[in-house]
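Thread: Newbie trying to understand structure tokens

Hi all, I'm a second-year student working on a class project, and my supervisor (Dr. K.) asked me to get a predicted structure for one chain before our next meeting. I've only ever worked with sequences, so writing a 3D structure as a token string is new to me. If someone could post the tokens and maybe explain what I'm looking at, I'd be very grateful. Here's the chain:
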Amino acid sequence: AAIATLTAGAAQAEAGKWSGRIVGGADFAIGGNVHGGANAPIADLGALNPGLAGVPATLQIGSRSQSNIYGEAWGIGIELGYGLSDRSEIFGSVRYSTTGSGSTQVGVANVPALNANLPVNGVFDEQDNWAFEVGYRQYFLEGSFRPYAAARAGLAFNNRVNATFTVPDAAIILSDVPFYKPSTLFTGGVDVGAATELGKGVSLFAETGIRYTSGPGGDDSALSTLGLGSINNTGDRWDIPVRIGLGLSF
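---
Reply by user tm_fold:
Sure, no problem. This is what the structure looks like when written as tokens:
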């Protein structure tokens, strides 16, 4: 049932004919940071918690990777292809993916008056992504089993992302802090996979590869008041996709 709902991909390239795919799977993060690091002195914690009026501190934020905070992104997409020959095709695709929300300890608040480093935690909104790509696929064999390689590039559109930061030991909560703006991103990647024919014009395929997505624009409207305006000048992501699908040629 899962395969049936996630799939419908090109059975094989055929010169002058159209094909279609529905493909689903996960992208596993292997590189890129959600945010960078910074040390930000705060002259008076009383602005964040009146009970700590007159107490200075330094926010010591470390960089955190995509795998630290979000991990894999799950998605589903459709493709329309056109055969240039019996071994090659061009295609266009639309794909939706989401990371779910993510959380981690992002650093510490160094408070000399308390002789303590207090954990600073962050919870980040999910990232929803619509990607529109074009590409080229080359098959290496003809017949019922067809290994292939493909290259693709395009644009993606990312939602606004807010974050909530807490320092539990100091009763500090900063909710819905703007972090990333809604953004247009660049995407690109290469795929390797194989398709197995199930019947006339129908195939099952599996593929992997490597994928890059550029970072969204940072929103510093609140972070800059904390001296952390530079930490979100990142956000690009490298993934290894693992996907399956079924294909139909028309």
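A couple of things are worth pointing out once you decode it. The longest strand covers residues 183-199. Confidence is low (pLDDT under 50) at residues 1-11. Feel free to ask follow-ups in this thread.
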